[in-house]
Amino acid sequence: MLMDGLFASLYRRLARRRTLLLIVTLLLWLVSLAAFTRLELEENIAAMLPESGTARSDLRLLERAPFARKIIIDLTAEDAVSTDALIQAADRLAAELPRETFSRVVTGPDGEAGGNLVSAMLGVLPNLFSTADAERLSRELTSPTVRERVNDSYAALLAPEGWALKQILRYDPLNLRQLALEKLRYLRLVPNAQLSDNHFVSSDRRHLLLLAQTPLAVTDSAGAVALEDDFFTAARLVLPDGIKATFLSGHRYTLANATAVKADLWVVLGCSLSAIAAIFAIFLRRRQALWVFLTPVLVLTTAACAVALVYQPVSAITLGFGAVLLGISVDFAIHVYYALRHAVGDPAVALGKVARPLLFGGLTTIGGFAVLLLSDLPGQRQLAVFSVAGIVTALLLSLLVLPHLLPSGAAQIVSAVPRRSERNRGGWLLVTGWLVLLLLCGWQARDIRFNGDLRALSLTPPELRQLETQLAQTWGGLHGQALVFSSGVGAEEALAANDRLFERLQTVLPAVRLVSLAPLLPALTSQAENRQRWNDFWTGEHGQQIVATLQAEAARLGFSAQAFAPFSARLHAAIEPITVDFYRQLGFGEAFDALFFAEKDMLRTLTLLPDSPPVLAALTTIESDSATRLVSPTRFRSEISAAIEDDFLRFISLAAVLIVTLLLLLFRDLRKVVLALVPVVSGLLGMFGVMATLGVEFNLFNIIATILVIGLGVDYGIFMVCREDEKSDLGTGQAVFVSGLTTLAGFGALILGQHPALYSIGVSVLIGISAAIPAALLVVPVLSRRWLK
User: Which of 272-281, 486-495, 500-509, 580-589 has the weakest average pLDDT?
Assistant: First the structure.
């Protein structure tokens, strides 16, 4: 055939220039290796998020959650330790932490509000006087209630602490300050925190909370090591017996994952290399066969450089799939090795015969990965370029370079599968059993679940999981809340949108605890409306009756006529609107900065609510306002799950169409196409069925594993059908078996890893290839004898 003759001719021509060929190959590898060492890597999960839809922007907004980038420090005291001692220890720890890693440590509100807080909040109450406040006062301040509160004020003045309350009571004999102070509950970012000596303490006073900032990037694993070392060193130096400290931040997750991956790589690589060495010793045996296993090294560096030419920076996740490429590229080399070992006479002829199935096997694998170019995920598009470039390189090396490094000629090869003459009549029993297993796996595959939770792709050590639980129990939900952003070009527009949001939330979710600036910092127009409402209330009939009742009861109790003159004057005093600066002076700057911030050319306010199904169902009504955006961790995971499921079905369909088309071009016989797809169908149904049975959920990384199973499975099918069709055997059965073993050795070892991503890839490929290999070696020959007579 034309292709056979072409590669036979190329082999003979290159054989005369063998030295030059090897020198050029070596130089190209050195260039690619040099470029590989200079790759700019991006360690960001955003590369694995869809560009369309809201997932990518949702992740960016989720990172604006108040504690997303904070270091949360928890000090725990034994029962014998006093609260004062705990506070003193916290102050010493805050002072001891190095500013290179802990640039700012917050022990409590960033100012001393003290008694000024009450008078300050009372003074701005007209700016905050909402419709609900007016209705409440109308309902509560009846004549009997007014007399009761005046009597309470009189009793308070007679108490030992009365001298300290005198000024407050002159300005507020009706306890209106309670109305103002209650609005501060909407600013409680830490639900269960209480203030003690301007420090955040728990309700049982056994825990104290510190919040810290760091200049270190969350993805900086080396910086995370320094962060942990600095913290625990400072804790050992300054904390007395009976007080322990620990902290939680994204850096600790980064370090835990980096450490786990490094440890896993030693285990996985050690086991896989040992297994591959055993395979080499048993099946290949010659030292020249080492070139087979060196081929993937050049493939990896070349493919990485190809990605760098198209994408900068390169996602570290993409390079993390280098093992996938290594597993495929070594298969091509193994087939060439066995073809040459079985060659009788001219090795060029044997190379020509193996070239056709090798090329079409490579093309179908390229087609499987090429569909990822249509992915909405940048990381998967990078992976497509990476894989296609690597497979092309592997084909060129296997067909043009490797044959000149390997021995040729007939030799006694360990047989991996029975030859045609050795097969018995139990073949159809085998096929029946195979069909039954496929039906069972197909039935189970209906229950496969898609998991879009990015946390499932990372490792959370037991220590951090326990710390998460402890923090949640002690301080309330610091993470995992639904976020609602209200945006505007300027502060007034953003605050006005926030006011509309708060009003709707009070209507649809009146009993739900939320964090919002709206009750404390309304828009200027809302503040003007509130002041007018205040004036209308006190100049109205009910307000005048309240004042009259107050004056009458005060006179009855013997108060002077001017005793509550400051209160009467404040009712009608002109006051200025409030801004963020007012709250900064009271020590709430940290909280306001978390909930009111600039982003590009917009200002945003942030409202926090529980991320629960009832709340999310109610919140769907608020998104009609274009200035409001809901971001929920639960909804985010649902979006990713939907994207995974959609991409999976789309990729499988496109890959199927492309691969079937290529198989039709290769065989021009529908029966042979069906036979070539037997290992693919077996691998996929086996993988889906067993994963569903074991409860293993499908994630972003399993999509890549699926493409790999498709690519390798169709390769096995092509080679076995070509062997059966051409009635010749160039060691095809042994090559399929050995290449399958190397794949299982490389990827199967991943199940020994502790990291969820590595385990996820390993278990998928292990199951899929374990089903594809027996189907190729045992089922395809039996069906071929019946169909290809």
Answer: 272-281
